[in-house]
Amino acid sequence: MHQSRGIRTLRTIAGWLVVGVFFFPIYFWTTVAFRNAKDIFNWPPIFVDFEPTARNFEQVFGISLGFGFGAQEAVTPGGGNFYMAPRLWDSIVIASMSTVLAIVVATLAAYCLSRMHFRGRHEFVNWVLSTRMMPPVAVAVPMFFIFKQFSLLDTYLGVILVHGLMNLPLAVLLMKSFFDDIPSEIDESALLDGASRWTIFRRIVLPMAKGGIAATAVLCFIFSWTEFLFVLTLTQTSIKTVPVVSSTFVTSIGTAWGNMAALGAAAIVPAFIVIMLVQRHLVRGLTMGSLKQ
Amino acid sequence: MAVAQVKRIAISDSPIPWLAPLVALLVVFTIYPLFYNIWLSFHEYFPRKRAIQFVGMQNWQQLWEDTRFWSSLGVTFVYFAIALVFEIVLGMAIALLLDAELPGFGGLRAILSLTLVIPPAIAGMMFLLMEDAQFGVLTYILNSLGLLDKTTPILATSSTALAGVLVAEIWQWTPFMVLIFMAGLRSLPAEPYEAAMIDGASAFQMFRRLTLPMMSKVIAVAVLLRGIDLFRVFDYVFVMTSGGPGTATYTLSLYAWQQTFSFIKWGYGATLSLVSLAIIMVLANIFIRVFKVRW
After folding, report:
1. Residue B39, domain member (yes or no)
2. Is A128's CB within 8 Å of B34's CB?
3. What is the pLDDT at residue A250?
4. Residue A74 reports pLDDT greater than 50
5. Chain B environment of A290 (Cβ under 8 Å)
6. Who's near B142: CB < 8 A, 6+ residues apart?
7. Are B126 and A129 a contacting pair at CB < 8 A?
8. What ipTM does this complex have?
9. B16-28 tens-digit pLDDT
10. Which domain holds residue B228?
11. Confidence check: pLDDT of A77 > 60
12. Taking CB atoms and an 8 Å cutoff, what residues of chain B touch A226?
């Protein structure tokens, strides 16, 4: 469709404005991470013109960025401890290990669902999809009791298991869609040459699906990274991920917005970077492999 | 000959070793919790005796008389419906706007995808700060536009609290719809539009008669996946309002969670999660049938 120059200019501006509105909260939150309290609690709120400080990050990470402020002071006069570097580590361990678990199990199953013909295959795929519908609260409560029994509460292993399981429907369906893209004639000719299914899977199909595996892994990582209810329910004091620990910054003596924003920004930036790497497969991932870009 | 041979090998393939790990894990994650919840819904924990005892149908009967349950169900449906309508309509409008090769639009799509990787609990915090009555930037903007009285704290007023939570929800997930709809729009064939142009169809007619029908599968998938998540909303209300003021933002998931962990009503909490599960399953399966969504 050919549009006049004027309409194209208007449309460009409108597009930028709309996305600007969506970007504004991210911008504002990031600036809060660099503000002193007086620039956060100001009325009218300050949009641009504040005095930047690295103090919030120093407190959260227990490091000195060379502005004359040390790690010892991470405990604020109010009594809140904002040293959160270990919580970031918890998030990294849980997200990466649960991703490995989900990818290994899902890749095996997805190859089978993509290539082998057996009775009830369609129903099986539907069952996997339906497990995506479980409300987390309906899973978290029974998990809490079984974890209590097996001493898995408040452990890495427990949360890794649950996050891995939580990502299985996504990982299986997404990996299946990537395997479906690889022509099955390749498998068939290798079968004729006497290769076993396992050899074909490992030597031929897996290397061809590398890009798809990477995209699936990134999405699993992000969903574990952002998950809230399971961590809230299944951890107590020794481990916590960033989203859950952020909610504890709201205290009776006030909310440490600057520290919270610093931690939040530190948690969001890695996610921004990895999501940029998988833009090409993003829609396929968001729709669990149902839609290809 | 070759085909027959491949077929023979393919038939002798056993899916069991490939699927066994998945099935084992899914049973732990779905079948076990399901049966545990059902069992627990006929029991209750008595803190004084420190014991779980059989109570028969008591928890299920309690549902009928529990006004907080009905109100949480109402809040959940209202939240679900408003969020879904806004996300679909805004998502489609923005997708149509951005579906063009104009300066910087590729970058705009990437920026929109950023909201999706923010933990919803942190997105809730962002809006909690921005909607603060004393110094919130959103409060300030709404004040300046004359849309909100300065004395009305958004999240602490029953009539506006749900809207305050929905703003965070809609902000974070409209881009989900935009990205999916844009992928759908880009995959549409050009010929029908060229034919319609020759016939002198208006832009709206083309949208109504061509775009919407051809996009129906894409829209159905997006609505199904978003709808499932909307019905089990927990993070935003937990961090922004904890269900308050009163019961204005109490969703079913939050109510079930609180019954279990705050009020130590394990049996009743399980009953409530089963209700939530049943509603999602029924609605999602009807939706899948009606709109013929297939994976």
Report:
1. no
2. no
3. 77
4. no
5. 221, 293, 295
6. B148, B154
7. no
8. 0.91
9. 889 999 999 999 8
10. 76-242+279-290
11. no
12. 117-121
What percent of chain B is modeled with pLDDT above 70? 96
What's the pLDDT score for residue B49? Answer: 86
Per the CB < 8 A criterion, the answer to whether A83 and A238 are in contact is no
Assess contact for A177 and A211: CB atoms under 8 A.
no
At B266, the amino acid letter reads W
Q: Where are the alpha helices (DSSP H) in A182-196?
A: 184-192
Separation between Cα atoms, residue B223 and residue B245, nearest integer Å: 30
What domains sit in chain A, N to C, each tagged with a CATH number? Answer: 5-74 (no CATH), 85-286 (1.10.3720.10)
Domain tally, chain B: 1
Phi, psi of B54 (to 5 degrees): -70, 130
More confident residue, A159 or B4: A159
Of A229, A243, A257, the CB nearest to B129: A257
Alpha carbons within 13 angstroms on the beta-carbon side of residue A179 total 24
Q: What does pTM read for this prediction?
A: 0.91
Q: Number of residue pairs across A and B with CB atoms under 8 Å?
A: 278
Query: Per the CB < 8 Å rule, is B112 touching A14?
Result: no
pLDDT tens-digit profile of A169-205? 999 999 999 999 999 899 888 988 888 889 999 999 9
- At A108-122, the pLDDT tens digits run 999 999 998 888 899
Between CA B53 and CA B40 the distance in angstroms is 9
Q: Smallest CA–CA separation between A108 and chain B, in Å?
A: 5
Please tell me the total number of residues recorded for chain A in this structure: 293
Q: What CATH number did the domain enclosing B284 receive? A: 1.10.3720.10
SS3 A133: coil
The answer for B 171-200 residues in CB contact with A (under 8 A) is 171, 174-176, 179-180, 183-184, 186, 193, 197
DSSP labels for B114-160?
A: GGGGS-HHHHHHHHHHHT-TTT-HHHHHHHHTTSS-TT--GGGSHHH
B99 CA: distance to closest CA in chain A (Å): 10
For A143, the closest chain B residue by CA position comes to B33
Do B276 and A137 contact (CB within 8 A), yes or no?
A: yes
Which among B22, B109, B270 has the least Cβ separation from residue A109?
B22
Candidates A264, A144, A174, A27; CA nearest to B120 is A264
Burial of B141 (0-12, 13-18, 19+ CB in 10 A): middle
